[in-house]
Amino acid sequence: MEREFLRGVRLSEFHERDTVTVARYVVEDPQVFFNNVELVIDQPFSEQSLGVSELDEENGHLKTHTPAWFSPHQHCSMAQWACFFILRALKVNFER
Fold first, then answer.
1. Which domain holds residue 84?
2. CB under 8 Å, gap of 24 or more: what pairs does 91-95 form?
3. What average pLDDT does range 40-59 have in this prediction?
4. Is residue 74 a contact partner of residue 84, using CB atoms and an 8 Å limit?
5. How many domains does the chain have?
6. What are the tens digits of pLDDT across the range 2-30?
């Protein structure tokens, strides 16, 4: 499942800006998408799964407090990294 999920995701960084490119099939059915997220993060999805993101008005950078299921300083699968970036992008772009 993780391989299929990752086939539709591209992560890149350009001048300190993270970019997530997601194929349509990964997110076109929200129920399937969030079911896949639950499989990757190994827990039921909830709003707490998103963590907290806020824009630092002074320098324009996004401050992110990671959710409990994701620890960037420990081993995380590439699918977990992808989920983290996709969920963060969804929260930042659709919460406002």
1. 2-95
2. 91/50, 91/51, 91/53, 92/53, 92/55, 92/62
3. 75
4. no
5. 1
6. 777 788 888 777 666 667 788 888 889 98
